[in-house]
Specification:
By secondary structure, the protein is α+β, with helices and mostly antiparallel strands. Helix content is about 45%, strand content about 20%. The chain folds into two domains: about 5-135, Beta-Lactamase; about 145-315, Alpha-Beta Plaits (2-Layer Sandwich), CATH 3.30.70.
């Protein structure tokens, strides 16, 4: 008659082989100096990763890592393993064909007496769908649904990041605030579908004129904000004036009476978003008051001139 221990062992192995969670066992003869190597994987691991047992046995967990794997999380896992402690983390792994997938990983030390060899078990649950859904929600939370560009929340985040990274010795970043002239009349006469189309096309147009370090967001309605990095004052002014000229000449995608006014300002790393937007808005108001379809500059420092004539000579700054 078979022993109960043998029955339990065979039952446990059958359970491990049939579970949808992946299970690995790693071993190291000197955990302080040698990274644990994989000595066992269950069929679920092979199915998800694409590796056969022969391909994975004897390898370290590094074979599963890639450019998107968080180094901080890896360091935390390694520290727990060396300390002989349990550890749980969500980790991005890569299948044999390069496909990324997310695992909720629970690593436990296995107290097996086998000389100096240390064993660890890793139970991993595929949470790729959950993480993708979360990432999608994050993107939606920071995207303008109509135009697909950044929204006000993303602008706030970008400004916070900018305040931490901007080198005050380098060229000050520049903000351009765009407001479509005659947009309300388009909505009233041609309808909101036509208005939405114009907003999308305008976002695409401005995006096409920006560099890789620039940033564009829709504040709401027909107002857009661009943050330019590394542009000289004259280059920033030229970009704004080109937008005014292009919209006037192209009739803005079927709407002949629409144009754009632009408010322009400069800021440094210490400037808050609200203050910079207020300066750009002040410049935009003056552009509207001057007859629309023009660019006005609101200087924040004595280095940026006050008069309208000097504003048009910003190239001499």
């Amino acid at each position: 008659m078979p022993k109960i221990s043998d029955i339990l062992q065979s039952t446990l192995l059958a359970l491990i082989d049939s579970t949808d969670d992946t299970i690995l066992i790693l071993a190291s003869q000197n955990i302080e100096e040698q990274e644990p190597r994989i000595v066992y994987v269950n069929p679920a691991f092979c199915r998800i990763s694409g590796y056969t047992k022969d391909e994975i046995i004897g390898k370290t967990k590094r074979i599963l890592q890639g450019p998107g794997t968080c180094k901080h999380t890896l360091a935390r896992i390694e520290a727990a393993i060396k300390a002989g402690e349990e550890c749980q983390a969500e980790l991005l792994n890569y299948a044999k064909d390069g496909t990324p997938y997310w695992f909720d990983t629970h690593i436990v030390p296995l107290h097996v007496k086998a000389g100096t060899t240390s064993y660890f078990g890793a139970i991993q649950r595929d949470v790729t769908d959950k993480r993708n859904a979360f990432d999608d929600l994050q993107r939606l939370a920071h995207r303008d649904v109509l135009t697909g560009i950044a929204n006000r929340a993303a602008l706030d985040q970008h400004m916070e990041s900018l305040s931490k990274t901007t080198d005050t010795k380098a060229d000050d970043p520049c903000m351009l605030m765009f407001d479509l002239d005659g947009f309300k009349e388009i909505n009233d006469t041609l309808g909101h579908i036509a208005g939405d189309k114009i907003l999308r096309h305008f976002a695409e147009y401005v995006t096409s004129t920006l560099g890789p370090d620039d940033f564009l967001a829709r504040l709401g309605g027909d107002e857009f904000v661009a943050i330019l990095r590394g542009h000289s004052p004259e280059a920033a002014l030229l970009l704004a004036e080109q937008a005014v000229s292009d919209l006037a000449s192209m009739g803005c995608w079927g709407a002949e009476k629409i144009g754009v006014s632009v408010g322009m300002t400069f800021f440094r790393s210490g400037d808050g978003l609200e203050a910079v937007i207020a300066d750009a808005d002040s410049a935009l108001y003056r552009a509207k008051d001057a007859g629309k379809g023009t660019v006005r500059i609101h200087p924040q420092t004595s280095a940026h001139p006050e008069t309208e004539d000097d504003q048009q000579k910003v190239a001499s700054l």
